[in-house]
Amino acid sequence: MAKLFLVRHGQSLWNLENRFTGWHDIDITETGIEEAKKAGLALKGEKIDMAFTSVLMRAEHTLNVILETMEKKDIPIIRDKALNERSYGTLEGLNKAETAKQYGDEQVLSWRRSYDIVPPGGESLKDTYNRVIPYFEKEIVPLLKEGKNILVVAHGNSLRSLVMHLEHLSPEEILQREIATGIPIVYLFDEQFHVHRQDH
């Protein structure tokens, strides 16, 4: 038996300001720190063998707060850009409402919520999936198969890619799935490596 814990980083400054963030390195807010503490409290009784995060500070900071709250600062941490948020290209830093005024609501909605439409200079969710899943299969699955419990702290779209893969969701189904900030999603892997979602 192994467990995989997925946590989306706490609220970032640009989440608060309703901006496209993507690969821009923006830290979490005080609210984000509180969300990370709540995630740490929710996971406090769990055994964690190793943690993975992106190279963006909002995910790293969230992970550090979680581990501090769990009193597990000595856990090995692997950082990799494969787990970074989806890139929004030239939209990064722009206010979402202002962008909708400029390009039209429908266009912005299709950039944000379609599976394979690419924002200017950025990545689609499909591109993000094709970056995250090979990394997951190569680096994280072998550890789960060894029975290790793994914590992944990342971003809305990199985690959405993992949820899509683990739950065998269609592109339409995953677009309806919101990943809340700071609330752990837990998957249990049995001896046959079948995956079961567990509410936390």
Description:
With about 200 residues, the protein is an alpha/beta fold. The protein has one domain: Rossmann fold. Helix content is about 40%, strand content about 15%. It has eight helices and six strands. It has a six-stranded mixed sheet. β5 and β6 form a beta hairpin. The longest helix is centred in the last third of the chain and has 21 residues, at about 125-145. The chain is globular. It starts with a strand and ends with a strand. Belongs to the phosphoglycerate mutase family. BPG-dependent PGAM subfamily. Pfam families: His_Phos_1 (PF00300). Keywords: Gluconeogenesis, Glycolysis, Isomerase. One of its GO terms (molecular function) is phosphoglycerate mutase activity.
Topology:
Blueprint lengths: L1 E7 L4 H4 L13 H13 L7 E4 L3 H14 L6 E3 L16 H8 L1 H9 L11 H21 L4 E5 L1 H11 L4 H5 L9 E5 L5 E4 L2
Parallel strand pairs: 1-4, 2-3, 2-4
Antiparallel strand pairs: 1-5, 5-6
Protein traits:
alpha/beta, 8 helices, globular, 200 residues, Rossmann fold
- The number of helical elements comes to 8
Point out poorly predicted stretches. Answer: none
- Domains (count): 1
Number of DSSP-assigned strands: 6
Instruction: Please give the CATH architecture.
Output: 3-Layer(aba) Sandwich
As a whole number of angstroms, the C-alpha radius of gyration is 16 Å
The major sheet is characterized as: 6 strands, mixed
Task: Summarize model confidence as the mean pLDDT.
Answer: 95
Classify the secondary structure makeup into a structural class. Answer: alpha/beta
- Sum up the overall morphology in one term: globular
Strand numbers in spatial order across the main sheet: 3-2-4-1-5-6
Give the ordered list of helices and strands.
EHHEHEHHHEHHEE
Q: What's the N-to-C terminus distance?
A: 17 Å
Q: And the CATH topology?
A: Rossmann fold
Q: Spell out the CATH superfamily.
A: Phosphoglycerate mutase-like
Give the % helix: 40-55%
CATH class placement: Alpha Beta
- Tell me what portion of residues adopts beta-strand conformation: 5-15%
Binding site for substrate: 8-15, 21-22, 58, 85-88, 96, 112-113, 156-157
Protein name: 2,3-bisphosphoglycerate-dependent phosphoglycerate mutase
Catalytic activity: (2R)-2-phosphoglycerate = (2R)-3-phosphoglycerate
Pathway: Carbohydrate degradation; glycolysis; pyruvate from D-glyceraldehyde 3-phosphate: step 3/5
